[in-house]
Every structure is written in structure tokens, then in C-alpha cells.
Amino acid sequence: MEPAIEVDGLVRSYSATHGMVRRRRSTVEAVRGVSFQVARGELFGLLGPNGAGKTTTIKILTTLLLPTAGTARVCGLDVVADTRAVRTRIGYVFGGDRGLYDRLSGLDNLRYFAELYAVDPRGLRARIDEVLDLVGLGGREGDRVEGYSRGMRQRLHVARGLLHRPEVLFLDEPSIGVDAVAARELRAVVAHLVEDGTTVLLTTHYMFEADQLCDRIAVIARGSIVAEGTPAQLKDQVADDRVVEVQVFGIGEAEVARVRAITGVTSVIVEDHEQAQALIVHCERSLDVSAEVVAALDGVRVGSIATREPTLEDAYISLVTAAEDG
Q1: Cα–Cα–Cα angle for 3, 202, 272, nearest 5°?
Q2: pLDDT tens digits, 78-90
Q3: What is the SS3 assignment for 58?
Q4: Cα(318)–Cα(240) distance, integer angstroms
Q5: Is the pLDDT of residue 202 over 90?
Q6: Share of the chain above pLDDT 70, in %
Q7: SS (H, E, C) 124-180
Q8: Between 150-162 and 180-195, two packed helices, what is the crossing angle to 10 degrees?
Q9: 263 in Cβ contact with 293 (< 8 Å)
Q10: SS3 track for 250-266
């Protein structure tokens, strides 16, 4: 069966201007030779840090940007040559508050977008009721959107993207900024869509969300795909590691360097949290370097310390860090 999405050697570059007095121009490659395929009915995750090229790739696939080089096909249609036909077959949902009219009700928003999508007016109200029930907004469609919570707005975004029954749905960080309950409800909606046969391409910064939902994942860093596979396959890349996670307060470069120098340590990452930092140390599975790590942190206030198995987030950070260091 023909893939729902085919991307081959995709490149997107743009010109940038630098300097205040002596202006100079340079070419920046946001996407550098990206290639992947998404099967019909698959939930495919595209993960990467900010600026890695995720949203640029999605905007090309949704016909909002032209590629500099390479090809992309959605539902067998070229995104450049068959722009209008591609748009009738896709839905695009992005995170944030943009794209809705606050002073209109949820129902009036959907009516408006249904006209833009050329939904058959004879079955319009039935279709609106159907998508409202799917996203859990049935009974609230008469309320103005300005009174909706962040989670309700995101579910209305999803409803909007489903009005014309798209074959492929692009979800660009749909759960960003929503609370835990609303995020769980959104994940349930997405899982239901895939069960019904919709192909979904998802970007997210929440690794547990990708681990729970995605059939396969591609990790993109600095505009290039650095790994691709199922969540289990990506985790297998760090399966030979043991992870020591230490809560620290005010760690410096000197202490990080001492930890990196410990025999058997393969990588060290520092994450900033609200009140403290998390020092994540990968080491060979056969070793337990907890005592050596604590000793290397002499002079640093240390909180909790734990040893655990690697997660998808560990695999992701390891892949992205290696790509950015390279």
C-alpha cells in the first residue's frame, strides 16, 4: 500500500542578515536532507529540540512553505504540484491560542471553518455534533470560546482539524501548555483517531506522550534525522547503560567535568529545574558509580540520588546531544 507520507531529501534554506553596522548575509538550512515515510493508519512522532526543523518540515508537508530541494508527497500527491488536492486531504492542529475566534461560540467557530473546508452543508450539523462528541465538547458548543479553558481550546482545535474527515492529521505540539487532565484527554482523542484509521504525524516535547502514543518515531536535530524506529528500538540504543540521577543545587562546570572523568561514565547531562538541577549520568550497566558521583560533587549541595533504567527521554537526549556536539 502506498505510504500516507513520503519525504525524500527535503531541504529548506533561507537567507539571514547579521550585524548592526556592517550588514552581512548568510544562508541558514532549517531542514537538511530529511527523508522518512509514514504508513497509512500509523501514528508517527517527529521529535526534536526547538529550532531542529520539526515545524518547518510540517509546514512543507501542509503546503504552507515551499521546499528548497527534495520532494514530499501526502496521500500520493506532491505538496508543490498538487497543493490544492493535498489541502483537501489533510488537517493541521497546532498548540497555543491562535486560530480561534474568542467572541464566537465553539459551534460558530466550527461552522465558519467548515465553510472554509467546503464541508457539505447538508450534513454539516451532524458532522459538527460528531466531532464535538469525539473531543468531549458536546454540550459546551454554545459557549463563547473566550470562556474555554486551555484544554477545551485545544480540543476545539482538534475538532476544527477533523471537520472535513482528513486522511492525514498533523498535530504540532497539541498538548503544550495544557494541564495534566486535559493532556490525558487529548491523548485519548488522538489514540481513538488512529484506531479509526486516521494517519497522524505528531510533534511533542513530552517524551512519555510519544512513548505512549507513537508507533514509530524519528528524532531530528540540526535539521537532519539522527534516528528512527519504534520507541522500544530507540530505547534499545541506551539499553546497555545504567542511569544515575542526582538532584543538585548550583553545580558548576568543574564538578561536571569531574563526573565526566569517572571511569565507566558515558555521558553527563545537566537539566535546569525550578529550584534545583538534575544531573543525569549514563554509565556502563555493569557499574554503579553512585558513590564516585557523590564524591565528585564535593562542595555542591546534593538532594536525592537514584539509579534507574533508561527511558525514551534518556535515548532522545543522548541522540540529540551527540548530534549537537558533532
Answers
A1: 145
A2: 999 999 999 999 9
A3: helix
A4: 13
A5: yes
A6: 97
A7: HHHHHHHHHHHCCCCCCCCCEHHHCCHHHHHHHHHHHHHCCCCCEEEEECCCCCCCH
A8: 20
A9: no
A10: CCCHHHHHHHHCCCCEE
Q: Is 278 exposed, middle or buried (0-12, 13-18, 19+ CB in 10 A)?
A: middle
97 three-class SS: coil
Predicted confidence (pLDDT) at residue 17 exceeds the cutoff of 80: no
The pLDDT mean for the chain works out to 90
Q: Alpha-carbon distance 322 to 98, whole Å?
A: 34
d(CA 47, CA 53): 10
Cα torsion at 81, 83, 85, 86 (round to 10°)? 110
Range ranked top by mean pLDDT from 78-87, 97-106, 239-248: 78-87
Residue 281 CA to residue 202 CA, distance in Å, equals 29
Residue linked to cell 564516585: 292
The secondary element (H helix, E strand) that includes residue 212 is: helix 207-213
Angle between the 106-116 and 124-134 helix axes, to the nearest 10 degrees?
A: 120
Distance CA 224, CA 83 (A): 25
Confidence label for 242 from pLDDT (cuts 50, 70 and 90): confident
Set of cell numbers at residue 85 = 488536492
The residue-averaged pLDDT of 26-34 equals 86
Q: What are the b/e assignments for 108-142, b being 16+ CB within 10 Å? A: ebbbebbeebebeeeeeeebbeebbebbbbeebbe
At 202, which amino acid appears? L
Q: What Cα–Cα distance (Å) separates residue 70 from each residue in 31, 34, 58, 87, 238?
A: 10, 8, 14, 20, 32
Element (H, E) at 8: strand 5-18
Query: What does the block give as the cell for 306?
Result: 537514584
Strand-strand pairing, 241-249 and 224-229: unpaired
Average the pLDDT over 297-304 and give the result: 92
